[in-house]
Amino acid sequence: MSLAKRIFLFLVLNFAVILTIAFLLRLFNVQPFLTKTGINYYHLLFFCLIWGMGGAFISLLLSKSMAKWMMGVKIIDPESTNEKERHLLRTVEELARRANLSTTPEVGVYEGKEVNAFATGPTQRHSLVAVSTGLLDHMKTNEIEGVLGHEISHIKNGDMVTMTLLQGVVNAFVIFLARILALALSGFGRGQNRSSFGTYYMFVFLFEVVFMILGSLVVASYSRFREYRADKGGAEVAGKYQMIYALKALSSAQNRKDPKCEKAAFQALKISSAKKRGLIFLFSTHPPLEDRIERLKKML
């Protein structure tokens, strides 16, 4: 996707978020939380919940469409004559049946040298499983089945919705706590002390950065947990050895990078990510592949 198109989509998404949140603030009659008599905590709480949860849920609702646009996902036609595509469709259909999904997810392929895959979508009935051309070209049939089993497990577990809820709650707490502490330390809004306007917003910015970093640790920790759970679910629907072989193949292909596929919004959704060491690992959305393999061997 061209840079101009990515910028356009980014602007459209953010414009949609702002319009929707403005509508919700009006709908719930949320007034300014700073009043002549001090702070209206009720309006502050609603303001934070709407801004924190609103953006997260709009992103979830648009996640499937955004994935198609930003990653250039080509949905496989059920009538395709390409044998690799037909096999991919059949495998996803069978795994979805084993996982007791009511609807088979859409299946797509995106161009990229990276060996990776992801699942997204707002609900089980409106979900998407996408794999890279690099994965199709460099993985064996049983390894691909393990990868697809992992992604089907994400959909079955409702991981996209859960991650959205968690991120929304974190966002709301960050906005709320940052403003409460900023008001307490700056004195802004107390007796209409407008001279501390600049100090208040400086504290808001500072606390939002600090709390967002701390919140990211919580989100990353849960994301690593859901990857372990999806590995286990993938082993249950695709087979223990297929899942282990898939993770080993991903480990061997970790050095195959493709910058055009490294979209920040979708890195957490993929089956594997770049290895992180030291303290930076605490912000990683994926556990090390070696640990995932060892855990699978022990639990199954």
Question: Could you explain how this protein is built, in words?
Answer:
The chain has 300 residues and is α+β, with helices and mostly antiparallel strands. The chain is 64% helix and 8% strand. The chain contains eleven helices and six strands. It has helices at 3-27, 41-61, 63-71, 83-98, 133-138, 141-157, 159-186, 197-238, 240-252, 264-267, 289-299; strands at 34-35, 38-39, 74-75, 106-110, 117-123, 126-132. Strand 5 (117-123) and strand 6 (126-132) form a beta hairpin. Helix 2 (41-61) runs antiparallel to helix 7 (159-186). The two termini are 41 Å apart. The model has no long low-confidence stretch (mean pLDDT 84).
* Strand line-up of the largest beta sheet: 3-4-6-5
- Point out poorly predicted stretches: none
Q: What is the N-to-C succession of helices and strands?
A: HEEHHEHEEEHHHHHHH
Which class of secondary structure composition applies to the elements?
alpha+beta
Mean residue pLDDT: 84
Helix content: 55-70%
- Count of runs of 4 or more consecutive helical residues: 11
Radius of gyration: 22 Å
Describe the structure using short key phrases.
300 residues; alpha+beta; 4-stranded mixed beta sheet; two-stranded antiparallel ribbon; 6 strands; elongated
Architecture blueprint of SSEs:
Layout: H1 3-27, E1 34-35, E2 38-39, H2 41-61, H3 63-71, E3 74-75, H4 83-98, E4 106-110, E5 117-123, E6 126-132, H5 133-138, H6 141-157, H7 159-186, H8 197-238, H9 240-252, H10 264-267, H11 289-299
Parallel strand pairs: 4-6
Antiparallel strand pairs: 1-2, 3-4, 5-6
